[in-house]
Design goal:
Number of strands: 8
Strand content: under 5%
Distance between the termini: 89 Å
Largest sheet: 2 strands, antiparallel
Oligomer: single chain
Radius of gyration: 32 Å
Strand order of the largest sheet: 1-2
């Protein structure tokens, strides 16, 4: 037996050894730890490490001297304009917010002069007979006049001080679509667009009557030559299917009766081109479309037509169809049925007035939740690019002038303005404008415009005018540009992309003498115009 002193000494040594075993690694642990630095990291570990480094390096700055609209203000103004400029943002703030600005826009009187833009394309002042005569003399084809209409349409969207009116004009021209490329329709198409624009914020009852009985529509859908012996059903069908009740809410007998009601509305085609009413061509006899019934005994069916169109414009199915189109255009591709029903009720309660419907729409919870859920289409992309780049467009002097090139720039993204070939109007869903082809075309467009093309009869904002102070870090300048161009602060991803595009570090100092404003500027601006925040609105 060991002595007591030896036992204590042995116990103490054991305790010390035990403590050491806790503090010191075992030979096996030490070997593993020595080998640890050489162990390859997993992909997840490497991604996480790189992400942490990138966050530290590309942490965005905040240049709060440049204000931005609130998320809801940006959302509404983007949906109801063709690009938010600093001037438009200031206008919204001066009005007391986005809703006050919107209500003021709705109350703005229609300006029939349209800022004199028709003077830029003199043929738009000519009568239908004069346009056709020039075409027969091989002076200028009617389709070229149609192109002029498209050019004026895009330029007007860029420069107009009443963007809500322009947006709603586009909406109704899509719903009541008459393409400029249809056979000789261009002789009437300029006035057709003006008539829609004048009623775009009024009563749909008035708008429907004006559009359906306009010679452009009569000619496009065959009613200009429709007779009681041979009623043309095209306009009668599209009136029910597209302009009012909608697919599935009428029968073939309804279509035939609709076509018979519309007989008599004619155009003196290929002669004087005058619209007229022909009693001898009006079909008489009982007609019924849904709940609308009439003995139709009078040779003059004009009053019958107006009563019929008024019935259709006030029908609950029409109210729901228009509400659905509004929601799909301005809210989301996934149409909330409850919102459609509320908007339809407002439409009917207000005698087809569109202003109360729009006020209800922009104040709805569904609209407020739909931030960044829509994709800019082709003409919105071109118009916004001009506006965000501070372009000032002058009267065109040649085919290469910006005011003429805008039309072909939109066409290059997939669809020339006002040329959709079918009467159902161009698509407004995201899928139609989110293809790889469209993205590549937009990248090319943005690259050219950021580089200052077109060059003729247009000036873009001076590059150094974007620099808000004499010198600043690149990361802070990126934040400033993001606020100016996108109406939102910059992000880590945006700063990283700008650094990759320009070769600048986040800490690089920027002055007016920096080469950023020369060879690298095109890459920088294109980065903003190709960002997801630009495409979504």
């Amino acid at each position: 037996m060991p002595s007591r002193r030896r036992a204590l000494r042995l116990a103490g040594g054991a305790a010390t050894a035990a403590s050491a075993s806790v503090l010191l690694p075992s030979p096996a642990d030490a070997a593993r730890r020595r080998a640890a630095p050489d162990r390859p990291r997993t992909l997840e570990e490497d991604d996480a490490r790189q992400s942490r480094k990138r966050r530290r390096k590309y942490r965005p700055a905040r240049y709060r001297a440049t204000p931005v609209l609130s998320v809801q203000s940006r959302h509404l103004v983007n949906r109801f304009s063709f690009g938010i400029t600093p001037q438009l943002a200031a206008e919204v703030r001066a009005a007391g917010g986005h809703l006050a600005w919107f209500d003021r826009q709705l109350a703005t009187p229609y300006d029939a002069r349209a800022r004199g833009l028709a003077d830029w394309w003199p043929d738009l002042h000519l009568s239908a007979a004069a346009i056709f005569k020039r075409a027969t003399m091989l002076d200028r084809d009617t389709l070229e006049v149609g192109y002029d209409i498209g050019k004026r349409t895009v330029v007007r969207r860029i420069v107009s001080p009443t963007p809500v009116l322009e947006v709603m004009t586009k909406f109704w021209e899509n719903l009541l679509h008459v393409p400029i490329a249809a056979d000789n329709v261009s002789v009437f198409r300029a006035d057709y667009g003006e008539q829609i624009r004048a009623r775009a914020l009024g009563r749909y009852d008035d708008l429907l009557k004006t559009a359906v009985l306009h010679p452009a529509m009569l000619m496009y859908l065959g009613n200009a030559g429709s007779t009681k012996a041979h009623p043309n059903e095209n306009l009668g069908r599209e009136l029910l299917e597209l302009h009012t009740l909608g697919v599935g809410h009428h029968t073939e007998d309804d279509v035939k009766a609709s076509a018979r009601i519309l007989t008599g509305w004619r155009v003196k085609l290929y002669s004087t081109w005058e619209p007229f009413y022909s009693e001898v061509d009006h079909w008489t006899g009982p007609v019924r479309v849904r709940d609308f019934a009439d003995d139709n005994v009078a040779a003059d069916g004009r009053d019958l037509t107006l009563r019929f169109l008024s019935y259709l414009s006030h029908h609950p199915d029409t109210a729901r169809r228009i509400a659905t189109k509004l929601v799909r255009t301005f809210v989301s591709d996934q149409v909330p049925k409850a919102l459609v029903e509320r908007l339809a009720a407002v439409y009917l309660a207000n005698d087809t007035q569109i202003r109360p419907v729009l006020r209800t729409l922009v104040r709805s919870p569904e609209f407020k939740k739909a931030v960044d859920q829509k994709v800019r289409d082709a003409d919105e992309d071109v118009a916004a690019s001009y506006r965000l780049l501070g372009a000032r467009i002058s009267r065109p002097r040649s085919d290469f002038s910006a005011a003429n090139q805008v039309y072909w720039q939109v066409a290059g993204l997939g669809l020339a303005p006002l040329t959709w070939p079918r009467p159902d109007g161009p698509p407004v869903d995201n899928a139609a404008w989110s293809t790889a082809t469209r993205v590549l075309a937009s990248v090319s467009l943005h690259w050219e415009m950021a580089g200052g093309w077109p060059e003729d009869d247009v000036t873009f904002a001076r590059r150094t005018s974007y620099l808000p102070q004499k010198e600043m870090a690149f990361r802070k300048f990126v934040d400033h540009l993001s606020r100016v161009l996108l109406q939102r602060p910059s992000t880590e991803d945006l700063l990283h992309a700008c650094c990759l595009a320009t070769g600048y570090r986040p800490t690089t100092r920027v002055t007016k003498r920096s080469d950023l404003f020369r060879g690298r500027w095109q890459k920088l601006m294109t980065t903003f115009l190709d960002s997801p925040a630009y495409y979504r609105h």
